[in-house]
Amino acid sequence: MHAFITGGSSGIGAATALAYARAGARVTITYNTGPDRAAEVVKRIEEVGGEATAVHLDLEDHATIAPAAAQAGPVDALVLNAVRWGTIMPNSMDFEDVPAAEWTAALHANVVGNALLVQAVLPGMRRSGFGRIVFVSSGAAEEGRPGPGPYGTAKMALHGMARALAWEAGGDGILVNVAVAGLTITEAERPVTQEALDRIAARTPSRRLSTADDMAALIHFLGSAANRNVTGEFVRDGSNAGRSSHAG
Ligand SMILES: NC(=O)c1ccc[n+]([C@@H]2O[C@H](COP(=O)([O-])OP(=O)(O)OC[C@H]3O[C@@H](n4cnc5c(N)ncnc54)[C@H](OP(=O)(O)O)[C@@H]3O)[C@@H](O)[C@H]2O)c1
């Protein structure tokens, strides 16, 4: 198994790379601005006896996408985890004030960039008659929240892309799903107080927020041979805060 994980230089992507490596897969991770962080992830994988390579890929710079896929070679599992977060913080701006350039940049990177990467990897999967593709999306996009319209819109476009691909590539043994993260605890600094995190955790079905390792386990299952025939699904992690009246 060769797994290609975008945005493997930190957070959920790094944890996913380790999950694949621990299961015996060879791993290629991508980084954008963090070659040192990526090298650290490669080192951690090698320390657990795994094999990993880091390649540069910038979803905003489409010219980097095909070369990154070519450098990796044939791929059995593709995890589209990298994200261009965007420049607009939640609640910082009214919808009507979002500049056109921000819409364009979000869709250019997070939708078209991911589509181009799938296009680069798909022919090899079709040839081998096996493939697993996992998009990483967000509960904030699914449910909506005030603020980052372009981020959520781009994420929801990936749900459409996954459903189309599931039909398009299913006949060649390729299963395509979306892993929907809720608020996930990673090593990244967050402008959120512990009290706010506890409040959100209390609104989830399992009363706890997932770690990057929890998300990695979900992504790895969907993107492995253990997933025998789940496709075209949007699988929500338990870290998603509920909308129901039980959620308080
Ligand atoms: N953490 C959460 O609470 C949460 C919640 C919902 C959904 N998600 C989703 O989960 C995924 C991972 O989130 P995370 O929290 O682990 O993020 P993160 O720690 O910020 O990592 C983002 C990754 O994406 C890469 N990246 C950033 N801009 C890029 C670009 N233009 N082109 C290519 N790669 C780029 C980064 O590479 P460099 O560091 O090398 O630049 C990094 O490896 C994302 O798709 C995110 O939307 C996360």
Salient structural properties:
248 residues, alpha/beta, Rossmann fold
Structure characterization notes:
It is built from eight helices and nine strands. The strands form two sheets. It has a seven-stranded parallel sheet, sandwiched between helices. The protein has a two-stranded parallel sheet with strand order 7-8. The radius of gyration is 17 Å and the shape is globular. β1, α1 and β2 form a beta-alpha-beta unit. Helices cover 44% and strands 17% of the residues. The mean pLDDT is 94. The chain has a single domain, classed as NAD(P)-binding Rossmann-like Domain (Rossmann fold). Bound molecules: NADP nicotinamide-adenine-dinucleotide phosphate (NAP).
- The number of helical runs is 8
CATH topology: the name is Rossmann fold
Cα separation of the termini:
44 Å
Average pLDDT works out at 94
Q: Per CATH, which architecture?
A: 3-Layer(aba) Sandwich
What top-tier CATH class fits best? Alpha Beta
Short synopsis of the structure:
The termini are far apart. This protein has 248 residues and is of the alpha/beta class.
Any chance you could write out the topology, listing elements then pairs?
Layout: E1 2-5, H1 11-22, E2 26-31, H2 35-47, E3 51-56, H3 65-72, E4 77-80, H4 100-128, E5 131-138, H5 139-143, H6 149-169, E6 174-181, E7 184-185, H7 194-202, E8 210-211, H8 212-222, E9 234-236
Parallel strand pairs: 1-2, 1-4, 2-3, 4-5, 5-6, 6-9, 7-8
This protein binds NADP nicotinamide-adenine-dinucleotide phosphate.
